[in-house]
Amino acid sequence: MPLTKEELKVKILEKAMNAPKPQLYVKDFYKCDPETKPRAIKNAANELVKEGKMTFWSSGSTTMYAAKGRAKDEESGEGIN
Amino acid sequence: MPKHDTPLLDELESGPWPSFVSDLKRQAETKPECWDILGQLELSYKDKITHWKHGGIVGVFGYGGGIVGRYSDVPAQFPGVEHFHTVRVNQPSSKYYTTENLRAIMDLWEKHGSGMTNMHGSTGDMILLGTRTENLEPFFWDLTHKLDQDLGGSGSNLRTPACCLGQSRCEWACYDTQEACHHLTMHYQDEIHRPAFPYKFKFKFSGCPNDCVASIARSDLAVIGTWRDDIRIDQASVKEYVAGNIPANGGAYKGGDWPAFDIKDEVLDLCPTDCMWMEGDELKIDNSECTRCMHCINVMPRALRPGTDMGASICVGAKAPILDGAQFATLVVPFMKISKDNDFEELIDFIEQVWDWWMEVGKNRERVGETMQRIGLPTFLSVMEIEPLPQHVKEPRSNPYVFWKEEEVPGGWERDVAEFRKRNAM
Fold it and tell me: Which among B79, B165, B346, B397 is placed 20 to 30 Å from B254, CA to CA?
């Protein structure tokens, strides 16, 4: 049975906080619940951004996700690169 | 007063053409950061390497696209371009503006940014070049609240949909491209403003096979107007063209060393499928062989027009050569009715079926056309629940990529050779 949206968000955030890479593609979250459709996973990840728990990092052509504070920040030089 | 010496860039002002260097110098009189653009570009010319870093976490609240972060890697030398973010503004369908609106956008960009623009980006957006992070939210507020306009797409989002002039000006448009473009832009606001896919995804809408927005080459999903009945022929006008009383191709075939118009040379012999001929002074067309190349219609627009049973062909998978080479889109649906009467339901169902498959099997940074190429057209067609058609096959027999499945063959793959040889002797 697929996880509920809130359960999924917890899994996604855990993955974003603990993955070796600080910035992750949306596909990297698919394994958080193989039974959930990619679109629902994308929606849950985007909701975490809206809540301020994750951030988008975009090169301009591709967009990645990172737990807040982990993304490479060109302005402050912070984040794990 | 120039802030940096730019001898290499100054060379670009010496030719007969308008120069962006001159434009930047003029803009620098009111926006001093433009001196630093010139300075950094001069340094890049000397060093033969870019000094821009692109990407970042910049954006406006609630959006995951529309802003492309850009920073100088030599900010101490060029502080005016320490931040120099790009903003994409969703263009109106077919890029119709009032001058009042254009002036308002330019005033807004003078207020919040460098005043530099790029009209338009290849996706169609207005590209506003150069602002600092702290200016993004005030700019976005003014753009959305005062001008009632919005940002376009960037990153792994649905990119800003684009369309040709369509039925607003063109007699060949086989569906209302502006209506389709606007409807899908509004329908997919979430996908435009927030990342959704393994990589970028673009729609483009062309009203006829002339494909004025080059959708077949530049969009992941091209909706190209077509018709499925016969080309309409006005034989009286054909005679006028043949007699030279109507200039062919809107007058393009004249002057220089163009001879008098010859329908055989300019139309019949150039038909890619040889489906046209003259019987006396009457033009005949075998419409079943027509590939909708539009050449004859372009040359004799007063004599020939698209048919009346209009819709669109849907092609999937074009891309520019960023990772693999460039590729054109593949024809997937030869004909689909495109109508706002049912809110473009059939097209939307098709799009979402493509997305569901691509989101599942597409690799990171893989365009849908690359996924189709990697997995194969037969699988793609089967997932899309589309029966293989002759139109899917580019070169029959030399390119046999439509295969039978075992369950579709009576008896499967197992054969009794002895039994077979009883009927087919060596």
Answer: B165
Q: What confidence category does residue B403 fall into, taking pLDDT thresholds of 50, 70 and 90?
A: low
Q: Across the interface, which of B57, B65, B363 has its CB nearest the CB of A71? A: B57
Give me the domain span that covers residue B120. Answer: 7-145
Quick check: is B90 in a domain?
Answer: yes
Closest CA to A30 of B371, B372, B364: B364
- In the block, tokens 């060596």 appear at B426
Min Cα distance B135 → chain A (Å) is 14
CA B265/CA B273 separation, integer angstroms = 15
User: How far is CA B402 from each of CA B314, B377, B378, B396, B416, rounded to the nearest angstrom?
Assistant: 19, 8, 6, 10, 25
- Tens digit of pLDDT for each residue in B163-186? 999 999 999 999 999 999 999 999
Q: Is residue B419 part of a domain?
A: no
Answer left, alpha or beta for residue A12, where phi above 0 means left and psi between -120 and 50 means alpha.
Answer: alpha
Domain membership flag for residue B154: no
Please, where are the H alpha helices in B16-77?
20-28, 33-47
- Cα–Cα–Cα angle for B242, B166, B356, rounded to 5 degrees: 125
In whole angstroms, give the CA distance from residue B114 to residue B130: 5
**According to the model, what pLDDT value does residue B422 have?**
83
Of all residues in chain B, the one with the smallest CA distance to A43 is B196
Q: Residue A81 — pLDDT band, cuts 50, 70, 90?
A: very low
Which of A56, A66, A74 has the CB atom closest to B195's CB atom?
A: A56
Q: How far is CA B358 from CA A30, A36, A37, B187, B201, in A?
A: 13, 15, 12, 20, 10
CB atoms within 10 A of CB B99: 7
**ipTM score for this prediction:** 0.90
Question: Quick one: what percent of chain B has pLDDT higher than 70?
Answer: 97
Q: What is the CATH number of the domain that holds B193?
A: 3.30.413.10
B69 DSSP β-pair partners:
none
| pLDDT score, position A5 | 93
Per-residue pLDDT, B415: 79
Answer yes or no: is B206 within a domain: yes
pTM of the entire structure? 0.90
**Confidence category of residue B402, pLDDT binned at 50, 70, 90:** low
- Looking at residue B140, its pLDDT comes to 97
Looking at the 3D structure of chain B, how many domains does it have?
3
B178 three-state secondary structure: helix
Interface of A with B (CB under 8 A): 25-27, 37-39, 42, 46, 49-50, 55-63, 65-66, 71-75
